[in-house]
């Protein structure tokens, strides 16, 4: 499994529940849920709101607004999400949700999820939010809703608990999130470096979006703010490794008002070898981090 944060693993697990995946249950896919948007940024009643993802079932005309937590809850977040929870039509009128029918039957529910048991958290709100616990034992994860914090949609709640049959969570759907941990950023760096080879094999020139479309399977579903952030980090990664020798294999060219790159190696095999060297270095850093964490 890739080295990613608990936060990123949770996002992957929710996405996987909406997919046909022979290694993971598809309980939400069977109800028609798909990924509507990842990491949306929007304002509601003057407050900035930023859940992790929204899943929508067109058949049930219903969305799940999800915030993946560690152990920490904040009262101000509870208040923001409760306001949305009680005015779900806002998600349609502001264009946050795009996969539902814009009619009076539309509904949305908010859910916290965590690997930790949030039932003991003093800031757990006394309302009708759902709270989902990814409960791990020696054999598998059991994805359960906490007592008194269940989904209001009966068909959705009936899917829980969901037993994964494995302790291995998918990580390929949402392979990195640069804002959560060093592990995620290192995984992001590896993905972008590897994508330079993939894209250079297919195109004479390529830009930041070409690299990110190759590196992130759900690039089209990401919120625009997240895309901007990832574009900036991709530029930094390429510039950093050009200074370390990647410039011998790809060079920056100006294309209108944006930067592009093109391969200048005598062979793409030479580019592959150079990228492999860089990736090995980053993987060594990841392994060293794991050893340090274990020692702690």
Class by helix and strand content? alpha+beta
Secondary-structure element pattern, one letter each: HEEEEEHHEEEHEHEHHEEH
* Percentage of β-strand residues: 15-25%
Question: What's the CATH topology name of the largest domain?
Answer: Trna Endonuclease, Chain: A, domain 1
In CATH, what is the class of the largest domain?
Alpha Beta
Uncertain spans, ≥5 residues at pLDDT below 50? 291-296
- Total domain count: 2
Count of β-strands = 12
Shape: globular
Distance between the termini: 21 Å
Helix content: 25-40%
CATH arch. level architecture of the largest domain:
3-Layer(aba) Sandwich
Give the biggest beta sheet.
7 strands, mixed
Number of helices: 8
Could you characterize the architecture of this molecule?
With 296 residues, the protein is an alpha+beta fold. It folds into two domains: 158 residues, Trna Endonuclease, Chain: A, domain 1 (3-Layer(aba) Sandwich); 113 residues, no CATH class. The protein has eight helices and twelve strands. The strands form three sheets. A seven-stranded mixed sheet has the order 1-4-5-6-7-8-9. Helix 5 crosses helix 6 and helix 5 runs antiparallel to helix 8. The two termini are 21 Å apart. The C terminus is likely disordered.
